[in-house]
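Q: Sequence in, structure out?
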Amino acid sequence: MLHIAVFGNSKWSLLMKDILEKEYSDLFVQDGGERISVDALVVLGSPQNEGEISIQEFGQRYISGELVSIVIPKEYYIRHNNVVLALLRSGIDINDIYEGIRLSDQVRTTPELVASLITPTLSDPYLSYLEFHVADHCNLNCKYCTHYSPLVTEPVFTDYERFCADLRQLKKYIPDIGIIRILGGEPLLNPDLGKFIAFTRELYPASIITVVTNGLLIRQMNTDLIELMKEKMAFIHISFYPPLQDKIEEIKRFLYEKKIPYTITEMTTAFSKTQVLTPHTDEDFFYSCFQASCTCLQDGKLAPCYAPFTTKYFNTAFGEALPTNEGIDLYDETLTLERLKTELLLPMQRCLYCVSGTPHAWEVVGKNSVLEDWVI
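A: Exactly. Output:
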């Protein structure tokens, strides 16, 4: 008997457990393997229900040989990378972390899908999450912004043709992505935002596509963009900052009337200053950093977060030389899927200049920003 775990306790986790123990287990035995028993549901944080265990407990039971692997349903999207990094931090071998197919209530009626139910994560041509900028500058300019938008001194828009070429190149390795977030800066500043949405939907028809905005320009969205977002099934995600407080109800009403789906964060009242100028030696920091799960695409490269692509603005503003020439070159002829996915799970040199930091009250940074506004 193979004793394994499944991540989560949603209907998708329970469906995965059911299929693994029944249809998939039958096929595995027919192929000369052992029967499968899903003995635990692994959760981030503290277990709340019977049958749940923490990632730390899973690590202990894995090291003892009691549990031999874990399966992560694709439906966890943005949390998927956090889970993988936490598992690696707990000592789990990457080869014992599996990804499932996209599930549906009808999956059991399709033997071909059941046969390919799980794939080792490094062999699965799938990313749970991708983000990209369409503008580096912003109309809000939060102090401590990790994308350094307040330090962008003039409008900087992503080149559309270059983006299309890069996304096509990525598609050669990764034909399926769970959730794609379009960011900035402020993405609604880009007059060609609709083109980016349309092309992304063309290449990734099954992905969740969302535009992440501070919301200040939502009511200025033109009819063409509104209709395109509805046609391409893209929705709005509002990062709720204090300047939006007296406008949020009007914005929600506008989105409801225009029939654009949306989500809103709780109001952000503090940002953390995370930048240091002297590199630390804690490479394990990467595996607890929330931004290390934010796979980013820019200028033909992928990286675990946006820092390698936006630190140039910090360096220019203050005459520093933090690492910027990092990321996975999608046009490298020697690149393989396994190498791409492996490198996304490894810390960069740029990671050594970030720390957890401490929260500071949210505020807009002035035009005469100084180094002390950014570094600890």
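The chain has a mean pLDDT of 93.
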